[in-house]
Structure formats: structure tokens, C-alpha cells
Specification:
Number of strands: 15
Order of helices and strands: EEHHHEEEHEEHHEEEHEEHHHEEEH
Strand order of the largest sheet: 2-1-5-4-3
CATH architecture of the largest domain: 2-Layer Sandwich
Strand content: 25-35%
Distance between the termini: 154 Å
Largest sheet: 5 strands, antiparallel
Number of helices: 11
CATH superfamily of the largest domain: PAS domain
Shape: elongated
Radius of gyration: 40 Å
CATH topology of the largest domain: Beta-Lactamase
Length: about 400
Amino acid sequence: MLDVTFCFALKFPPQLLSAGEDVEALLGFSREEFLTARVQPQDRIHPADAGLAETLFSQNSTDIAGSVNLRIRHADGRIRCLKARFAKTHTCDGAPQLDLRLEDVRQLSEPGDAILIAGFKTLVENTDDYILLKNSNHVILAASRSLPSFTESAKQAAELVGKTDYDIHPEAIADAAYELESRAFAERRRMNEHQQLRTQDGALRWIDNRKYPINGPDGEIIGVLGIAPDITEHVEADGRVRESEELLRDAQKIGGLGSYSLDIQSGVWTSSEVLDEIFGIDRAYERTMNGWGDLLHPGDRAAMSTYFAHKVLGQGEPFDKEYRIVRRGDGAERWVHGRGELIFDSRGRPVTMHGIIQDITESKRKRRCARARKRSARRNASPAWAFTVRIPPRASGKPRTS
């Protein structure tokens, strides 16, 4: 069993008083490097475990003895998962002291390991799904035969047994798995997260990484069952849908084209992001018929109300009208072209209307300018019946006399 005990005087900052002989075998640094403070043990602790470290080195903590799982960076740059057993005492002069014993969890056997192996090992080892079994120290007890393809170099599932994720994955991947398992232990319920992994042949795959905490006979958490279905096709299809939706939104935005859906019975409507921009409204705006009416230009309200009630709802015609609105946000007057199709129930009654509204203010302006130019050109042009009379000059010389 490889373990090292450190003794600290709990000052600020903590002062290392002694270090065990096997410290180099465990952490890769010599005793002298630690004792001369060239290397500080607390500086090697994983950033995500800073809260644990603060409790360990605190003089005011109510925890005077116990054990925690601690990640420490080895001299080779990789993370080691350790069991940290601690006890806080006082020296003969009353000064607080911390005794910290670190053990490599890969060499530890936990009481629940036998239960986990008996209950799940056969299941894990005889499936092609991505499944693994770990104990409460995050050490792999069993892995399915397909799992090595997601590791950096393992070829057989047996190579994974007795290791942690930090031994077989890049640190970022191992961090994510460790965090997910820690949450499952703490909250005592299933946790899951979508993760992208690279296989040994270079392919990128998406998995739904699920962690199920496992209880021992006394109700304590003794390990975790990890199941990771491959969801690459689903994620890629979802990505294509989102890309299409983004392209559609961009196209609608460029064209000033928003969409809506109106529930005829309640008079409540929903609107797209682009339509909200056209109307100058936010998500809190009242999307009712009264709310729509308030957006109409005062000069168009009566005509639009009559058109919608008689032509659209009364005669079932598609909504197709150009009208003016006054933007709620800035009070600007805009021209829009609204279109809509009614959906009828089995009795022929209209139930919903889906449609689009386009901002045509600019095209209206251009049409007005074009008409004005044509009128001006007609006024300035010569009439079609005009002609020129040419008078020849009078002949030179004296006039004749009779």
C-alpha cells in the first residue's frame, strides 16, 4: 500500500513540518522539494477541490477528523485521485496541527467493492453498450468491451480495471466525468450530461453520459453505474434542424418577415422574434386582439376591424391586406403586408389562423418615389402633338417698286 503522511502547522499560510518517505513514489516530488517549500502540497490540489482544501487547512473547521477524496497533480502533470485521511490536533503548546495521510485510491479496496462486482460485473462485461462500474473512489471495477475505443490507448476492457478516468482520458474529459459522479453521490440520484468524445480512430461521437449511484446494504453510496448511449445521429440531426431554423430566422430578418399564430376562440396570438421586432414589442406585450388593435395606425383601425370580421371570419377568405402600424417601442409609423390562412374544424368553423407579416415600409417608399418621378417626367415632357414651325429668313436686297 502506497501512502504518505504530511504534518502541517495550521498557520496562515500552512507550514509543512514533515513529509513521509514515500512521497516521491506517490507524487513524483522529493521530500526535500516539499520540506524546503520549493513545492507546496496545497498548490498541487485540483482547482475544483479548492473547497475541500480550504476545509482541511482551516483552523476554524468543525471537522477534526475524517476522510475525503482529493485530486492532486503529480509531477508528471497528470492528476492522481487520492484518499485523504485527516486528523486535527494540538501540539503541547496548544498550536493547531493537521496530520494528512494520502493514499492512492487505485490501491484501496472498499467494503462495497465486492457487492458491486457480484451484482453488476457480469452485466457490464457482456454487453456491447458503453457501460462501466466504479466504486465510491471513482476507481473502475468493470468495463464493457466497447468502452476502450473511447480511451487514449487501451485495447481491452481488462486494462481499464483498477484505474481512474484520469489514467485513460484527457483531463477535461476526466474532470467532466468526475464532476458528474460527485454530483450523483452528493444528490443520491441519476445525473446525466451530453459529452463529445474522440475515439481512438479519430472519430468524434456524442454520448449521453448517465451516472446511477448505487446504495450498499446500509443505504450508503458504495459506487456508480455509468451507462453512455451513443446519441451522435440524434445530436447531428438536431444540429441540422437548428441550423435550418437559424437560416430561416436570418432569412426572415433580412426580408423583414415575421410569423404568427392566432387562436380564433380566445383571440390570443403568438409571434416570432422577427415579428416582435417589426411591431416593436417585447415578450411581456399583451398578445390579444385588443393588443393587435392597439398596434394599428389610428387611421386604419376601423377599416381593418371591419375587414377581419366580415371578410376573413365572416366569409372565410384568406387574410391579405396592406396596412399601417405604429411601433410600440419607438412610435414609428410602418407599413406592413399581412397574410393568413384559416384552419377550420370538422364543422367548418375557423379555429386558428397562421400567417406572416412583412415590413414593406421601404418598398412602399420606393414605389411612391417611382410614381413621383414618373409624374414629374410626364409634366416636363413635350406633348405628343407639339411641332416646330420654321420661318425662312427674309431675302436680302432692295424691295421692288412698281
